[in-house]
Amino acid sequence: MKQVEEGILLWEPSEERKTTAKINSYIKWLGEHKNMHFQDYHALWDWSVHEIEAFWASIWDYFDLQAEEGYQTILSSHHMPGAKWFPEATVNYTEHIFRNRATSNQPAIIHTSESRKIKTVSWRQLYQDTAAMQQVLKRLGIQKGDRVVAYLPNIYEAVVAFLATASVGAIWSSASPDFGTQSVIDRFQQIEPKLFFTIDGYVYGGKAFDRTDVAAEIQSSLPTLEATIAISYLEEQATFASLQHVIHWEQAIKEAPVRPLSFTYVAFNDPLWVLFSSGTTGKPKPIVQSQGGILLEHLKALTFHVDLGEGDRFFWFTTTGWMMWNFLIGGLLTGSTIILYDGNPAYPSKGRLWQLAEETKMTVFGTSASYITSCMKDNIKPYENYDLSQLKNISSTGSPLPPEGFLWCYENVKKDLWIASASGGTDVCTAFILGVPTLPVYAGELQCRGLGAKIESFNDNGKPVIEEVGELVLTEPFPSMPIYFWNDPDGSRLKESYFNVFPGIWRHGDYLKITKRKTCVIYGRSDATINRGGVRIGTSEIYRAVDHIPEIADSLIVDIPQPNSDSFVPLFVVMKDGCQLTDDLKQQINQHIRAHCSPRHVPTGIYEVPDLPRTLNGKKLEIPVKKILQGKQMEQIVNKGSLHNAAALDAFYQFAEKIKT
After folding, report:
1. Given CB 3.0 to 4.6 Å as the disulfide criterion, which of 344, 368, 376, 541 pairs with 534?
2. Where is the Acetyl-coenzyme A synthetase N-terminal domain (predicted)?
3. pLDDT at 400
């Protein structure tokens, strides 16, 4: 593996690429329609974050947002939380998906999986299927404000179900079938859904996983459900015998009356979907984002920062349980074709996704940094085996892409390639530090802060810093910020999550350095989330799985980022008196985590310790343990006076010394 220093220039866009970039069209439009002229991207960004009302109003005008009621106010206040965007306006997300495309025979979606062959769906077919599913929802009484939940893989039917849900003003939430049963129940119970979409099972790594009993358990745990729509995916004609009152997808679509799509307009700040946090300190937080905020932000980010338009083929490897699925669906807003893949990205070989890129003539390849680094470590050379002539961009997120990952792409995928490492999150359902096709690419660096996102790096004193690592913060409101958390009437959970460190300023939880040339470097999360392959999960979910093992008295898990490789994720356990940590017991623990959380979050290793360090009020010290394993000293991480059992830290210092050697 070749070494490369952070900040080395690897690529510069050609004049042709700069000229044809979608953001260049916007800059020209600003000059013609607003008499505003900008010499480069950074001047444009500076205006967009210091005149945010004017900027977001220009985005509304540029994309000609359709609204039953227009806006009078752009932003109610700059105070956070509580700022409201375009409060008088009413919109519908799905309307913008199909605008001027309902009768097009151009491809809207290309989808495939381990169990399904590649299929291309036209805009016309997508429209017809969405209209049919809308009729099903209406027959079931689903209307504005109702919650619709989906336990589905990344398949075509999931997109149709979501678009139909949004079209009637209902609220969507989804979870991937590889999530453990309790993880799904903990999410869906909080929002009291009326309708449940599910499948019979899925295939991953060549193995079939029947989920009908899990679906039945989820269904029985949701007393507010009035209907369940089931999709035969693992089998051609699944019976779903363990489920109650099942409506079969194919039959429902077939019997639906043929009527055009109608659109229920909702207030700009009404909910579109509920995404869930990873659940680090308890049950996952239900993050609610608005129809208008997501619509505006995704149009901007996907058009200008991903450079999508008609003729593009946009892929991201994701599941329905990750916000990148929602972001991928947003690609339809730009008129591009989106590509769905369900399955193991490394099955039957590490080249599977590169093969998919060739088969679909992919132009934008979105993936996790860990996938790129795993290809790099396995010495995969896509350019030798696949025709990637259509590919113009590789985007990565989930964790920082190391400089060597950038270099690997240029040496093994394509020389003339725009690499865009991106950072954002579930909290805003977008990337707000990302790429732009008119700027150069430097190894290990994210090209720019996104338009309209006033990102800064704060030191511990709450002061902005350059060329220093600090906390990533947003100092101005942003349209796709949560409008609220579900069941948080006084907003206390929302404030605690983002505004408890710097009052009135959003603290995101990432370590960030902004360079003098205005690029950015992310150095990982500043919280305790476990992140494997771009899929995050909270420690509390791991603990709930481990709690099923009677021999274990307590446990603690941390995620230690490693240079140029996947994270080191040790699980520490305290044994009950008289019990031993045997190899068989370790295997049992891993099986429980695989079943109750996800296969991605099985720890690197399991280690016995005599006790876990806790605060005086009983909270486990995850972050201090993480810092110990990263080589920090006691005085740098924790005040002994705040600990219930400071001596418990000794075992972790000993472990840190052991893993050094």
Report:
1. 368
2. 41-96
3. 77
Per-residue pLDDT tens for 217-269?
A: 999 999 999 999 999 999 888 889 999 999 999 999 999 999 999 999 999 99
418 three-class SS: strand
User: What is the pTM assigned to this prediction?
Assistant: 0.83
Are residues 463 and 517 part of one domain?
A: yes
- Find the domain containing 231 and state its range: 107-264
DSSP class of 468: S
Domain identity same for 350 and 495: yes
Are 514 and 541 within one domain?
Answer: no
| Cβ atoms < 10 Å from Cβ of 565 | 14
Task: Centre a 10 Å sphere on the Cβ of residue 258 and count the other Cβ atoms it contains.
Answer: 8
The CATH number of whichever domain residue 582 belongs to comes to 3.30.300.30
The dihedrals phi and psi of 85, each to the nearest 5 degrees, come to: -95, 140
User: Is position 143 within any domain?
Assistant: yes
Residue 362 lies inside a defined structural domain of this protein: yes
Instruction: Flag whether 85 is in a domain.
Output: no
Beta bridge partners of 485: 287
Residue 642 is given by DSSP the state: G
- Rounded distance, CA 300 to CA 294, Å? 10
423 and 334 fall within a common domain: yes
* Main-chain dihedrals φ then ψ at residue 360, nearest 5 degrees: -100, 0
Q: With H, G, I as helix, E, B as strand and everything else as coil, classify residue 531.
A: strand
Tokens of 199: 């499948």
